[in-house]
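Q: Could you fold this chain for me?
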Amino acid sequence: MPTTQVGSHTVYYDDCGAGHPVLFMSGLGSTRWAGGSTRAFSAKFRAINMDNRDAGDSALGTGSYTIADMSEDTAGVIQNLKLGPTHVLASRWAHDAQELAIRHPELVDKLVLFRRRRRPDLCQRKPEIAAC
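A: Sure. Below is the predicted structure, expressed as structure tokens.
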């Protein structure tokens, strides 16, 4: 079980593939992304999929923490794994990912924020968007 020490706690992560690093951020209280996403990316990239503190296989937090603290956790993972500038994929609501890009622009090569849709019929492009 791969872990790295960030500050006073232990962070669990999956690491597969080779190439430019892509880190999947799951957001507050969430565990690692489902394996299908990371497996697909690992065909061309080094895919890093981490658990936040208090989630999944990472250690429990030792007290209260902020979004800024969570962004520092992710920065610590990037630094400990010596990833260098990393593509970061996160939900558009992942404020910790946005904080990471603001606090550590040297660690974030590209920040991709997206919204997941579960129903294919909701993914249809609206005419006003398709025209852009």
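A (continued): The helical segments are 35-41, 67-80, 95-103, 127-130.
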